[in-house]
Amino acid sequence: MSTLELISQALEFEQKESQFKSRNDKIIAVREAKRMILAINEIYKKNRDEKLMTIMKRLSVIKIKFEKRLRIR
Q1: Where are the domains of the chain?
Q2: DSSP three-state, residue 2
Q3: Contact in structure between 4 and 42 (CB atoms under 8 Å)
Q4: Distance from chain centroid for Cα 36
Q5: DSSP secondary-structure letter at 73?
Q6: Both ends of the chain: CA-CA distance in Å?
Q7: C-alpha torsion sign, points 44, 47, 52, 53
Q8: C-alpha triplet 23, 28, 32: angle, nearest 5°
Q9: Which of 14, 8, 1 is nearest to 42 (CA)?
Q10: 5-44, pLDDT tens digit by residue?
Q11: Strand, helix or coil at 55?
């Protein structure tokens, strides 16, 4: 997957954050966020682009928020 595709998927994921209502949707969202974070991290290791780091940080915040809500129940 190319860098541009990953970035566009990550930005689209951020826009859809409020659409994950059910528990199952949140579980799927956490898995998807983790997959994107790891893929972007592999690219980041090669070129050290700060934009990629900020995208990973934003995805991590969303992922952590969903994980906290899933643990409460």
Answers
A1: 24-73
A2: coil
A3: no
A4: 5
A5: -
A6: 35
A7: positive
A8: 145
A9: 1
A10: 999 999 999 999 888 889 999 999 999 999 999 999 999 9
A11: helix
Residue 2 has a pLDDT of 84
Distance between CA atoms of residues 34 and 56, nearest Å: 10
Q: Which amino acid is at 13?
A: F
The answer to whether the beta carbons of residues 66 and 20 sit under 8 Å apart is yes
Q: What pTM did the predictor assign?
A: 0.87
Token output for 48: 């050290």
Position 39, amino acid: A
Question: Residues near 62 by Cβ (< 8 Å), separated by ≥ 6?
Answer: 13, 14, 17, 29, 33
Contact criterion met (CB below 8 Å) for 56 and 40: yes
DSSP for residue 18: G
Q: Which residues contact 39 (CB under 8 A, 6 or more apart)?
A: 1, 6
Q: Position of tokens 């659409």?
A: 19
AA identity, residue 54: T
